[in-house]
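Backbone-to-sequence.
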């Protein structure tokens, strides 16, 4: 590999197998020439698929569509929806950029713009992650982001509400008609341990009206199904959403409990709602309730914490209801259960007995003091059955 200059333009000279390439890099900047040289080598090594030059000329929007088509045979439909949602923001900022023109600075600039829009680190990492997979699919990532490091994500496992906060939150959520979906979804989450992604993907066939149970199929393990009994509060919220879904055209068992809003008053019951379906309502109601920063997923943590504090729920029962729980969360809930057990045994205290503890301790101290030997004199003092007089000195056997 050699980069050299002809006039004011940099050129490259390299070989792949038995074939030699001498190409103009069409730049007078040495750093840009080094980057373009790597791109040309990658193009020369690329076998099959699109022609290398066509790859470089694809813009991000076109490349994203090709990527999603290939991904459909590899991942679930819910993952495709998640990545398509993430790509909306990538296309908004980088959609017209040529794939071959992206640089490390392009990624950094994208991250800065998203942070300026007050987007969380987790969301930004998801979006950049999809862009990274697109560039990897076309063998371009190592030119762009080999040195890129994802943003640090918060390690907190979640936030549980106090009874007063919970009541205030739901009082506020129920106060406006435009917050109805967020209100009903929050009631389900706080009473079933289901997450937002799981609720969005509930279909009519997943609700057993006679048994009043919910079949949850979406989660970290999509092959694992959880059957969750619904308490009175959760069932009421499900009924409200069922009535709304029917009015919006949900008639088939395959239709979703929360139909997707297309535009205005147009809905498609055959599609689930977007990740941001009730984001605006959530932000407004949490602010009004004085709970800014509360995340929808925190309601799952809140529900599991309440179960862990309940003497009626064993650890096996909690895991059966909640499904996957990370190691950090499992340790936290074990601590919660231990505190609940501590409060339970504290209820066994008899106040009449506890009032005597100080007196009993004082009496025990006096008895111990009476039995303590006097160590100031001979170590055998105080034992009447032993003669403690010192022995008389013996005469010396040596001559004076």
């Amino acid at each position: 590999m050699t980069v050299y200059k002809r006039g004011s333009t940099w050129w490259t000279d390299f070989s792949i197998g038995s074939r030699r390439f001498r190409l103009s890099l069409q730049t007078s900047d040495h750093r840009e020439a080094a980057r373009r040289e790597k791109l040309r080598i990658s193009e020369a090594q690329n076998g099959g698929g699109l022609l290398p030059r066509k790859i470089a000329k694809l813009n991000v929007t076109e490349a994203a569509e090709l990527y999603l088509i290939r991904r459909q045979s590899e991942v679930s439909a819910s993952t495709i929806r998640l990545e398509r949602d993430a790509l909306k923001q990538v296309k908004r900022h980088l959609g017209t950029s040529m794939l071959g023109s992206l640089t490390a600075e392009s990624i950094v600039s994208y991250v800065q713009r998203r942070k300026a829009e007050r987007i969380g680190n987790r969301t930004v990492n998801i979006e950049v992650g999809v862009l990274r997979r697109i560039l990897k699919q076309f063998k371009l990532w190592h030119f762009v982001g080999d040195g890129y490091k994802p943003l640090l994500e918060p390690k907190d496992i979640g936030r549980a509400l106090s009874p007063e906060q919970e009541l205030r939150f739901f009082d506020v959520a129920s106060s406006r008609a435009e917050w109805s979906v967020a209100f009903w979804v929050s009631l389900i989450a706080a009473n079933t341990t289901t997450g937002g992604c799981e609720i969005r993907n509930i279909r009519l066939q997943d609700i057993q009206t006679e048994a009043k149970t919910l079949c949850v199929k979406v989660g970290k393990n999509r092959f694992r199904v959880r059957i969750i009994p619904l308490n009175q509060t959760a069932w009421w919220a499900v009924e409200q959403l069922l009535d709304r879904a029917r009015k919006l055209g949900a008639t088939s068992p395959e239709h979703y409990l929360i139909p997707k809003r297309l535009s205005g008053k147009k809905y498609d019951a055959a599609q689930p709602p977007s990740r941001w379906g009730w984001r605006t309502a959530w932000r407004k109601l949490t602010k009004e309730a004085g709970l800014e920063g509360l995340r929808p997923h925190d309601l799952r943590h809140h529900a599991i914490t309440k179960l862990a504090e309940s003497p009626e729920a064993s650890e096996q029962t909690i895991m059966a209801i909640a499904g996957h729980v990370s190691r950090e969360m499992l340790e936290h809930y074990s601590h919660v259960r231990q505190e609940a057990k501590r409060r339970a045994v504290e209820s066994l205290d008899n106040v009449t007995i506890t009032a005597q503890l100080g007196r009993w301790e004082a009496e025990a101290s006096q008895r111990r003091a009476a039995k303590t030997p006097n160590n100031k004199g001979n170590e055998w003092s105080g034992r009447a059955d032993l003669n403690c007089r010192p022995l008389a000195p013996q005469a010396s056997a040596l001559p004076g």
